[in-house]
Amino acid sequence: MIHPAQPHADLTALNTLHLPARAESLQPVEAAMDLPALTEALLQRGTPVLVLGGGSNIVFAGDFAGTVLHMRTRGIELLAHTGDTVRVAVAAGESWHDWVAHALAQGWHGLENLALIPGTVGAAPVQNIGAYGVELFEFVDRIEAWDMQSRIWLQLDAADCCPGYRDSVFKRSLAGRAIITRVTFRLTTRPHVRCDYADLRGALRDAGVTAPTPRDVFDAVCAVRRAKLPDPARLGNAGSFFRNPVLPAGDAARLLAAHPGAPHHAGGDGSVKFAAAWLIDQCGWKGHRRGDAGVHERQALVLVNFGHARADDILGLAEDIRRSVLARFGVTLEAEPRVV
Ligand code: EPU
């Protein structure tokens, strides 16, 4: 049964920056099979559609003059267990962190480094969530999505999704048309840990762990995130507000010659990824507050809403940060969350 839509719906509690905004209509989606009928009706009426998961990567710049489809589908299904590999299908509306914790409890490993990332399973592939040396698509087997433009169900494998750093086909050719309904993961029952990331190694060392188990890694990631990143339930934020800039070899060499201390990692094909947090921090923004908009005091890449900030406050602050980083380092920062 399709639940009734709510007219003139308040979206403030549905976005983790807690920005005040309304949608003409809010339609809960409780079953993926309802999507064809729902989207067809909206398309016929010419109503703009926005798909919302946990609202943790979105900036509502104003009200949305259309229908927000709020993905609330649930279900975790073990499809196959062969040798030490499991394939598990997870509905788009499941909470990402709850799924990571559930997988760990079942002894299905791989996702521990991605613990505590806010949002839903269905939103995770869009920006190929990544943290502490691991990216989502390493564990994606296939993705099911409803393409409301072609009116067909898509079955995509990981390569079809063209994953990149905070990027996928869902931000490009399938943007605004494909609604992810289910993600199938390929995980392993053989404990295997990844703890090369400096912060993670430090946390394990501090906890006195010498031979980390997947549970140790999960706990250490949670500890690092809790220490550095604000909990959106307490302090509005959308995680990293900017992507880490990836510069071509020549530009990277020039930046490093002028600023040898700039934290960086080798990207592919000679490109170099720089830490946006460091660039912003060097410009003196960390802990800066302007009204109710601010830069988090422990992570310069995170913009926060202290209570009653409006979109203009957050976006104005972001623009000033972008300008000062450009002026000082010649580097253009790009916003990470989607501005609607
Ligand atoms: N740094 C500063 N000042 C700060 C914070 C960090 O100089 O205020 C420096 C650190 O010393 C470090 C470097 O910047 O050398 C990188 O910092 P960090 O390890 O905290 O990671 P990040 O590059 O800032 C990325 C992701 C995070 C993810 C962490 C951990 C992006 C845009 N952000 O942040 O993802 O949790 O790595 O893997 O790639 C998110 O996307 O919302 C997010 C939180």
Can you give me a brief rundown of this structure?
The chain is an alpha+beta fold and 340 residues long. The chain is built from seven helices and 20 strands. It folds into four domains: 6-71, Uridine Diphospho-n-acetylenolpyruvylglucosamine Reductase, domain 2 (2-Layer Sandwich); 76-188, Uridine Diphospho-n-acetylenolpyruvylglucosamine Reductase, domain 3 (2-Layer Sandwich), CATH 3.30.465; 198-228, no CATH class; 236-339, Uridine Diphospho-n-acetylenolpyruvylglucosamine Reductase, domain 1 (Alpha-Beta Complex).
Describe this structure in words.
The chain is of the alpha+beta class and 340 residues long. It folds into four domains: 66 residues, 2-Layer Sandwich (Uridine Diphospho-n-acetylenolpyruvylglucosamine Reductase, domain 2), CATH 3.30.43.10; 113 residues, 2-Layer Sandwich (Uridine Diphospho-n-acetylenolpyruvylglucosamine Reductase, domain 3); 31 residues, no CATH class; 104 residues, Uridine Diphospho-n-acetylenolpyruvylglucosamine Reductase, domain 1, CATH 3.90.78.10. The chain is 24% helix and 28% strand. The protein has seven helices and 20 strands. The strands form six sheets. Strands 6-7-12-10-11 form a five-stranded antiparallel β-sheet, with no helix packed on it. It is globular. It starts with 5 loop residues before the first strand and ends with a strand. The mean pLDDT is 97. The chain binds uridine-diphosphate-2(N-acetylglucosaminyl) butyric acid. The site of uridine-diphosphate-2(N-acetylglucosaminyl) butyric acid (EPU) has 18 residues, from strand 13 and helix 6.
